[in-house]
Amino acid sequence: MNVRPDEERGTVSGADGCNHFRGGTETDEAAGTVTFNTLTSTAIACYDDFARYFPRAEGPLRIGGDAARLVLTGADGDGMVLRATQGAAR
User: Fold this and answer.
1) What is the reported pTM?
2) Would you give the end-to-end CA distance of the chain in angstroms?
3) How confident is the model at residue 52 (pLDDT cuts 50, 70, 90)?
């Protein structure tokens, strides 16, 4: 999965290998959280992949990790780990 945040615009976009997605984000640096707003996805192929791999938690997701990985965790403990790669498609 490729995820591209745009802090200036407050958006996120990317692809899960089959479909593309985009939506708004709100980051609370003091709380260490990000909230995704109105995420939409194409439904060209592999429709279930987006829902399965991208956290669909209500409310903010806790941000964690380090320079090599981003960990997003919902209040219920479910989440995902994104690993940084060099030369990722833009």
Assistant:
1) 0.69
2) 12
3) low
* β strands within 16-87, DSSP E: 20-28, 33-41, 61-66, 69-73, 79-83
Query: What does the alpha-carbon distance between residue 45 and residue 50 come to, in Å, rounded to a whole number?
Result: 10
Domains of the chain in sequence order: 2-83 (2.40.128.270)
CA atoms within 13 A on the CB side of 24: 3
Determine the average pLDDT of the residues in 25-46.
84
Q: Which tokens hold the place of 6?
A: 């745009």
Q: What is the rounded CA–CA span in Å between residue 58 and residue 76?
A: 10
pLDDT above 90 for 30: yes
